[in-house]
Amino acid sequence: MLRKRLFCTISIFLCALFSSKAQNPDSLAVGYERIVFEGAGLAETNDALLAKADCYKQLGRYRDASATLARVRLFALSPEERTAVQYQQELCWFLAGDFKQAASLVEEVGDGSSDALLLHALALAYNGQYDESEIYAARFISWDGPSERLPELLALYAAHPRVPNASTSMVLSFFPPLGHFYNGEIGEGLLSGGLNLAALAFTVANFVSGYWVTGLIGGGIALNYTFMGNQQRTSTLVEKHRINDPIIFGDKLRAFLLQ
Amino acid sequence: MKKLAIVATVLLACTSAFAQKGGRELLRNADFSGQLIKETPPAGANCAETAMWSLRRQLTGRDHYEPANYMFVRQAIHEIGFIPAVFATSDRILRDTKIGTVRAIVDPEDGRIHEGPEAYSLKRAAARSSAADPDPSGAFGSRKGRGPAGGEAPLRGLVQGSSAAARWVSQDYDFVQYLIDNDLKQDARQLLFGGDFQPSDTLTFLRGWTLYQLKELEQANRYLGAVPSASAFYDQAFFYSNAVSAHLGDYVSPTARLEAYSGPYAELKGVQLAGLALLRDDPEAFKSAAGAFRYNDFKLEAAEHELDDIFELRYDKPQKSPLLAAAASALVPGLGKIYAGQLGEGVSTFLITGAMGAITAEHWIKDGPKDWKTIVPAVLTGILYIGNIYGSYMSVSIYNSHLYDAQETAVLYNIHIPLRSVFK
Q1: Which among B19, B26, B366 has CB closest to A55?
Q2: Per-residue confidence (pLDDT) for residue B137, from 0 to 100
Q3: What is the C-alpha radius of gyration for chain A, rounded to an integer number of angstroms?
């Protein structure tokens, strides 16, 4: 029974493979999934899943490729094969833009090839782990021996963006425009500082002139907008830098390493 | 057998090796710019609006409303006229605070309240109260992707001719189910639309079912609706097709189809008919359809009670009066909004209008009524006060709109979800 089933599976797959429609990676992916469905042996299942992930890679569906690779039964693979699969998984997570997932695979993939070192350096840099990334990047460019580009690489890392600290930023935002300045936004900081100063001046001027209600209510409302708005904006800036800076730095590093 | 397996494995490996694109090339070509947080002024903003956008970021950090107030003014003048636009904008300013937006329904995608000038359109409010079919283009809770059911686009595959190599899809039924159950719906789609299958009822159903799973409702509806009554999948396709039609905003044709249905699912027919009657705002049709409710089938019982509750809330309880809301807000700013069920908006309106009133009073007492320092806050207070009355009048319509939309969503849910248990 099992022999017959496997025979059917392979026949269907071979038909699918050589039919004109099978040139389409989408169709091929379904053909490979059929092998998994038919309950082929571990090795065949793994091969089918790897081939299916490859189809997804060709289609640019990297998240699906990663999910397919996650289904590969790693225990049935040799250590070298396992590393190769995990490298592909890390690569797919990275290409899918999920840098955290990619960085989580760095230790499992290891450092056995220059491709792995390159990928680790990029995955860690895009994930904001600059120090760890620097080690892999340095090893990557020195893979074939000492490199003249090492000082340049070190200079690039020396200028890596600082990860803004949300707590420090919040504390500084109580003293407008220090929160903005901390996040590197000088122009916005000056505007925010000016608005806060104007609201404060309005309040004080009204109190001095004896307009207590206007000073208290009008000034209170104005300061509420300028002061609270400054705090809100500061926290938005932290989030913006936290997400954008590693990507901008990663793009520079990628261009440098892949020269 | 082993030889065959080895051949297949080698072929797989070869295909894989040939197909493999270089990792470095992929890394080089990767583009992550879509992940960057980009801050750009709203599309179509003029210089003044761009300046306001820039200022607004410093004053509140973020906009609660979409479109933001500075974009709303121009749109409102264009859509509802100058004077209503002034009062509508002032009402919006009164509501656009943390307190005012505390209970607002926000869009989960951008965290903003989507409310355009049409919310202040009296025509829309009138249409809402008398329409047989709720307005699908409204700003409140309008569902994305809605559109007319049916259409003229040809059904791919339904008219596909058979070929010598074509197989019957029933041979692959289990595989399709496996793909759907394992969240490999795109693979199922590829198989059903790319495979060389003989045309059959099963193929039509499976295509419709897969598209339904992929939430491609318009296409799914065409396939599900094309399953003939002789098919074993007819009942499932029929009831799902009705639910999908309702989701697409078509309440009339599924009602007609259900009325002609004489199959074994009489109670389910009653539930869908009752739901569609509520969606069409037809209380008599609801009462007639609800006669089929038995309240003893656990698969349908919850939906039956829910539909009864919606009916009671909509037709058996007195509706709120816009005039009463306006009068209440004339007496105490914000009170009409509280009457309309918008506590946060009412409190926000009261605080801001009250504050402006107090500032005006202080200047009136100290500088006299003719001083510019009195006139400026007095004019602003007046505009806010009238905006508050106008907004309270409209807030009842807005409240009813929200209520209708929430009920509509609940009705759609209740004519849809029980199908999963019934046709499990």
Answers
A1: B19
A2: 33
A3: 28
Collect all residues of chain B within an 8 Å Cβ-Cβ radius of residue A35.
8
Question: pLDDT for A150-168, tens place per residue?
Answer: 999 999 999 999 888 889 9
Q: Could you give the 3-state DSSP secondary structure of residue B44?
A: coil
- Cβ atoms of residues A99 and A246 within 8 Å: yes
Which letter does DSSP use for residue A201 in this model? H
Q: What is the third-level CATH fold of A78-160? A: 1.25.40
3-state SS of chain B: helix, strand, coil percent to 5? 65, 0, 35
Residues of chain B scoring pLDDT < 70: 1-22, 61-62, 122-166
CATH of region B169-317: 1.25.40.10
Give the pLDDT score at B122: 60
CB contact under 8 A, A211 and B363: yes
CB atoms within 10 A of CB B131: 13
User: Among partner residues B20, B30, B33, which is closest to A95 by beta-carbon distance?
Assistant: B30
In the predicted model, what is the mean pLDDT of residues A51-67? 92
Q: What's the CA angle centered on B204, arms B198 and B205, to 5 degrees?
A: 130
Three-state SS for A221-255 is HHHHHHHHHHHHHHHHHHHHHHHHHHHHHHHHHHH
Q: What amino acid is encoded at A42 in this protein?
A: L
CA B372 to each of CA B358, B380, B382: distance values in angstroms, whole numbers, following the listed order: 16, 12, 15
Q: What is the pLDDT of residue B167?
A: 77
Break chain A into its structural domains and give their ranges.
1-77, 78-160, 166-244
